[in-house]
Each structure stands twice: as C-alpha cells, then as structure tokens.
Amino acid sequence: MDQRNYQEVEQELKGQSIRVITYQIGQRYHCHIEIKDPGAVIARGSAATLSEARSAALKKAEARLSK
Amino acid sequence: MSNYADPTALVPTQWVADHSNDANVCIVEVDVDTAAYEEGHIPGAVGWNWKTELCDTLQRDVIKKEDLEALMSRSGISNDTTVVLYGDNNNWFAAWAFWQLKMYGHKDVRIMNGGRKKWLAEGRDLIQDTPPAGTSLYSASDIDASSYRVFLPDVMDVHKSAGSALVDVRSGDEFTGKILAPPGLPETCQRGGHIPGAKNIGWGLACNEDGTFKSVDELEQIYGSSGVTKDKEVITYCRIGERSSHSWFVLKHLLGYPNVRNYDGSWTEWGNLVGAPVERGE
Predict the structure, then answer these.
(1) What CA–CA distance (Å, rounded) separates B156 from B76?
(2) Do A35 and B35 make contact, defined as CB atoms within 8 angstroms?
(3) At B70, phi and psi to the nearest 5?
(4) pLDDT digits (tens, 9 = 90+) for A9-47
(5) Minimum CA–CA partner of B38 in chain A
(6) Is residue A24 within 8 angstroms of chain B, CB to CB?
(7) What residues of chain A lie within 8 A of the CB of B89, using their CB?
(8) How open is the CA angle B51-B53-B56, to the nearest 5 degrees?
(9) How far off is chain B from A20, nearest CA to CA, in Å?
(10) Can you give the pLDDT at residue B1?
C-alpha cells in the first residue's frame, strides 16, 4: 500500500515538548503524538483527512497530559 | 554498517526492502505503541506485542523458553533464520526483543537501522495483511542471562564499585526525581531519583534525527566523556528495561564493550524498594 507525506512537527502541549507525526497510508491519514523526551507515543489518531487525524490525536494527548 | 564493533547487528532499510521476500529472513515489528503494526507494516513482517508476547505475563520476567519457542515457530522462524527487528521510538522494543533473542541463543538477529520512523520517512510501502502463521519447529537454548542481564543483588553490590559504571538512560527529569515517569505514562514507582553513582546518558543521545544510530566516534564521545569506558563493568537501566536494552545494544554491539549488562528490573524495581539508597538532583 502506498505510504507518503511523512512529516514531523515539534510544538508545546500542556507545557511539554511534543512531536506531531503525520503520514498517509492509502487513502487514510494517521497522526501520532510523541513526548519529545523520552520519545514515547502518548496518543494516536486516524481519519479521512489530515486535519481530522491531527485533531483527534492532539485531543487525546491533551487529555492524557492533563491527568 | 560503517565501523561498528558488530557490523552484522544492523541492516539499513534498503537491505530490508531487498530481502522482504527472502525465505531465510523474517522481519519482525515490535512497537511501544502496539496499534502501529495494524496500521501498516513492512510487507511480510510479523508483529510481536511486547506486552503479551515478549514477557512472562504472570510473574514479572522475560519470556519463558517454551513461550519463545512457540512465538518463533508460529512466526515461521527456524533456528537458522535471519531475524530482522524494527519498531517505533527508534527501535526501543526492537532492542528489547534483540536482547531476549540473544539470551536464548538465536544465532542471527539484527536491527533495522532507523526503525519504523525511517521506513515511513522514506515513503516505503506498507501493508496491513498479516502473514500466515508459520509452521517451523523452533528450539531455543536454555537462557544464558549471565552476560546479558543483571539482577538486583548484583546491582546493589556493583553500584558501590569503582570499576563499574551505572548508566541511567531515562530523561533528565526522571533521573533528577522531578517526575516519576515520562509525561503521559503511568507512574509505577514510589520514589523519584536514581541509583547513587549512576550517570545520566539518555538513550536518545545515541540516535540521529532520522532514527539511525550515531557514528562510532560520536558514540564513544557520548559515553566516554561521562566515564563510561570499555574497561568498566557497565550496567544500563531505565524504568522497565526497554530503553536500557537500546543503550545496551549500542554499548555491546556498536561499540564492542565487553562487559555490559541490562538491569531490566530498572527503576520500577529500585524505586519501589524499602530502604534502597536513592539520589536526587544531577
């Protein structure tokens, strides 16, 4: 299956440095959020569009970091 | 793979692409995020779940011999198969699996340099189909932990010795005791801090931005400048033993340190012990 558009963006969320990683597999977009240090994935989202996948993952990450 | 001490321990992504249909090679994905494999994986790759398949699920321990034999057999791996491991987080749990396969005597096990991240970044194909269950009959050696693994009583002795080096590979905030676990992950210890005398050399320092391992010169500088040298008895640890298996791999297989072992009890053991000495701060 075709896989493309890999991108990593660093930003802050709830006072933590995170990496927002997005890519497309076939027709579906995927996003996962890593804490920059130590690098663990804390949230994931998949959707038909890039912005939906990104929003879903960021929402889960924010909830997890708020605990 | 450049001038690493064990040049067969690493393979580049292109090598894996070239061997994805090689009957003598089994590609195995092991992720921190166990949902990643289902999302898409390297064509032909088997997926192993570290939470259920690479440990004893009853008592805290590495996988049992009979369970490893079953896992290898249903993955289509025979004793002569070249096993290539890769995963997310720059191969955290791929290194964990590598460490366990070595303890059980598998002859040819390698890690894909750069892991899942590099494969994705290169825009290489992924599939969602899982390979059919294998029919091989794998026979593991009895576990040989002596040169790979260290237990609490040894760490209690070794941490006081001048000829040893304890390497805490967690983040700076975990090491100093500011936090008990990485943000977003469960806090599984009662106390924060580190084992007295340990050096904090984060696992990620061994990696380039693309997920590949740094050069021998760079790695020697990173560890040597903290006094972690080849002449010492080196012990790596983290929180549950997987990040430290990554650093163990670097020290043992890329730099060729002769005496390096992984303390997989790590901080979730030490940080819960009644009366264990703890240091805080840098």
Answers:
(1) 41
(2) no
(3) -65, -40
(4) 999 999 999 999 999 998 999 999 988 877 778 899 999
(5) A25
(6) no
(7) 34, 39-41
(8) 80
(9) 13
(10) 56
Indicate whether B49 pLDDT > 90: yes
Domains belonging to chain A, first-starting first, are: 3-66 (3.30.67)
* Nearest-neighbour CA in chain B from A38: distance (Å): 6
Tens digit of each residue's pLDDT (9 = 90 or more) over B141-184: 999 988 999 999 999 988 788 899 999 999 999 999 999 988 87
Q: Phi/psi class of residue A15: alpha, beta or left (left: φ > 0; alpha: ψ in -120 to 50)?
A: left
Residues B7-44: pLDDT tens digits? 999 999 999 999 989 999 999 999 988 888 999 999 99
